[in-house]
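Workshop exercise sheet. Pairs work together: one partner reads the sequence aloud, the other fills in the structure field after running the prediction. Swap roles for the next sheet.
Pair: D.N. / O.F.
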Amino acid sequence: MRLAVGLVAVCALAAPAVPAAAAPAVTATAAPAVPATAAPGVPVTAGPPGMAGLLLTTADLPAGYRAVPADENPYRTDLFEVIGKGAPCRLPAELSYSSFTWERSVSATFLREGDGSEDDETMAEVVADRGAGVAGALVDAAAAMPRQCPEIDTPRSRISMSPITVPTIGDRSAAFRVDVGTKSNSASEGVSEYYFDSWSYLSIAVAAVGTRSVVVVLMGTSEQPGIDLAEITGEAVARVRSGQAP
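Structure field:
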């Protein structure tokens, strides 16, 4: 089992102020924190009643996945590197961690624990209802991130982003991959090549569905996720389309 270093980063969340025609780089504004009082596996959320019914469940995932609180995601630190508030190279959509939340969003995190021969895999989903303009701007941000931030170097990690080609999902969609190399503590500052203790891989899809946005993130240490990103995002969008939540 891979241990996290400490993000969300993804797929918690602040309420980013995103104008309908906002540029991809969006600065978020903090919203009042929502206490993390949900039972295990239940999203911490301030979403309207009924919105949680728009989320996927373990029944929609391969065998072995279980719902967990977002803070138990072993890849949460890597996720916080690329999803969160206030940074141009972060997707302004976040999971409902105890320290952040959107006022009109719900999220869920699912974990499949490795058996010793393989590491943990995680899937996270966020559904928000903040208007068609915000949903479209989120898709624009996802499409622009690999172009704007192909390589990021932080004190903790080296990050690379690349686009993923997927068919149109929902009204509009975009997807990208994030490779996160965690630097070794023995790496010397200023050297051109770092030693990496571990690598993790994130596949992120964003879709706009009317006034709602859907974000799906697959996380693990394998370059090839155990879940098909386009397929599971399509299922998530279908759930949102068919839902009757307000």
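Discussion prompt: The longest strand covers residues 196-209. What would you look at next?
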